[in-house]
């Protein structure tokens, strides 16, 4: 209902009503107020490549400060295309099949706005990144969750549940691998099962691959679903520099896919931001050419942090789940007597001087496992050690 606020007769539009402030804001504020070690939001404390930072500074001083081309700087689009070919054997034309965006966030929003009409359905695996539900809502579409099934200390695909979730209104499958918040990397067999359903039901796939370089477990490997038979033609790949280079404030992302799909995304994107980040784009073009050397070191750091935190959580009497990639480790907090992760996270700063995020914040399903909590590992070694010491003392 529209009501009077002050002298103006207004109220928030339905598409943003009740979006409210997120649990991230609450927990970040709690960390600030209590001085607790903040393992909540995935804001990296880790270094970035020194040459990348210098290249940005040089680009700014050299005057690369005006609008880039709407589709992104040519050098970056060429570097992205070369990266996809070198790493995955995926061939995209820099002109027409690659689009630079203001982070993966804008790419996701623009892609859903471009592909979904009001009333359409989008399928995502549950839990999922919190922007998906918001973006679906902005598009007037409905986000349908297909639960990832707890399987031992990890999560698995339920292909039958996915098949059952597809309706005549389903337009898009949104696939995030490596996955936030679980740290799951979908296996080749799981991807083959998903691809089969997408081909059968003519679904368009949007993939969120922002953690593509951060698979740190032996035996796990990132495979873009676009590499599978019949999938390139129906898939938009989204990735970003933020997580790969620890530059989350730069917001440079990109989309790769068949030209008509990319053109549709650009139709929405050009009126969201038009374009952004000229000096970042220019510097990232060079950094992406040698990303493999950089990422190997980052993976070592994240693996060490994962081990340090998982070990510490175990010794503190909690039960960490397996994480193979990305920025996060989850834990079952029931051994501390909590059935509710939200309450656990509200108590934790006081009890142990640590901030975490309840995983329910990422679930669409009201029957989600409420006892899961997510900790960030993209932090300095001493932050993780301090958190571990304090968790063990609070046991
Ligand atoms: C961080 C993150 C994003 C956002 O990426 P930006 O490039 O910072 O906009 C998108 N998807 C997932 C799964 C993420 O974790």
TrEMBL record:
Domain of life assignment: Bacteria
MF terms in GO: kynurenine-oxoglutarate transaminase activity; pyridoxal phosphate binding
Annotated keywords: Aminotransferase, Pyridoxal phosphate, Transferase
InterPro entries in alphabetical order: Aminotransferase_I/II_large, Kynurenine-oxoglutarate_AT, PyrdxlP-dep_Trfase, PyrdxlP-dep_Trfase_major, PyrdxlP-dep_Trfase_small
Residue ranges annotated for the Aminotransferase class I/classII large domain, each copy included: 37-390
GO CC, any one term: cytoplasm
Similarity comment text for this entry: Belongs to the class-I pyridoxal-phosphate-dependent aminotransferase family.
Name of this protein: Putative N-succinyldiaminopimelate aminotransferase DapC
Gene designation per UniProt: dapC
């Amino acid at each position: 209902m529209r009501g009077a606020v002050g002298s103006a007769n207004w109220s928030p539009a339905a598409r943003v009503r009740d979006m409210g402030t997120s649990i991230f804001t609450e927990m970040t504020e709690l960390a600030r107020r209590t001085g607790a070690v903040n393992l909540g939001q995935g804001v990296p404390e880790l270094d970035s490549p020194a040459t990348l930072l210098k290249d940005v500074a040089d680009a700014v001083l050299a005057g690369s400060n005006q609008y880039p081309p709407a589709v992104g700087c040519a050098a970056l689009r060429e570097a992205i295309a070369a990266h996809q070919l070198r790493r995955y054997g995926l061939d995209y034309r820099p002109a027409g099949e690659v689009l630079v965006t203001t982070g993966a966030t804008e790419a996701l929003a623009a892609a859903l706005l471009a592909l979904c009409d009001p009333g359409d359905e989008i399928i995502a695996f549950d839990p999922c990144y919190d922007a998906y539900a918001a973006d679906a809502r902005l598009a007037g579409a409905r986000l349908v969750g297909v639960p990832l099934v707890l399987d031992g200390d990890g999560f698995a695909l339920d292909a039958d549940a996915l098949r059952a979730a597809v309706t005549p209104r389903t337009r898009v499958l949104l696939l995030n691998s490596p996955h936030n918040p679980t740290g799951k990397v979908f296996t080749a067999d799981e991807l083959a099962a998903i691809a089969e359903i997408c081909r059968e039901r003519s679904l368009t796939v949007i993939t969120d691959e922002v953690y593509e370089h951060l698979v740190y477990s032996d035996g796990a490997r990132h495979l873009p679903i676009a590499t599978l038979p019949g999938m390139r033609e129906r898939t938009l790949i989204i990735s970003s520099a933020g997580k790969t280079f620890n530059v989350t404030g730069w917001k440079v992302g990109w989309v790769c896919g068949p030209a008509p799909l990319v053109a549709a995304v650009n139709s929405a994107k050009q009126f969201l931001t038009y374009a952004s980040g000229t000096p970042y784009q220019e510097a990232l073009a060079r950094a992406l050419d040698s990303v493999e050397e950089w990422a190997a070191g980052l993976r070592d750091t994240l693996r060490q942090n994962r081990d340090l935190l998982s070990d510490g959580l175990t010794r503190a009497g909690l039960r960490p789940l397996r994480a193979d990639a990305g920025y996060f480790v989850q834990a079952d907090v029931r051994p501390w007597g909590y059935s509710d992760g939200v309450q656990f996270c509200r108590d934790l700063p006081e009890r142990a001087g640590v901030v975490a995020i309840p995983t329910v914040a990422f679930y669409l399903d009201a029957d989600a496992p409420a006892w899961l909590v997510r900790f960030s590992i993209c932090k300095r070694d001493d932050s993780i050690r301090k958190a571990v010491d304090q968790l063990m003392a609070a046991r």
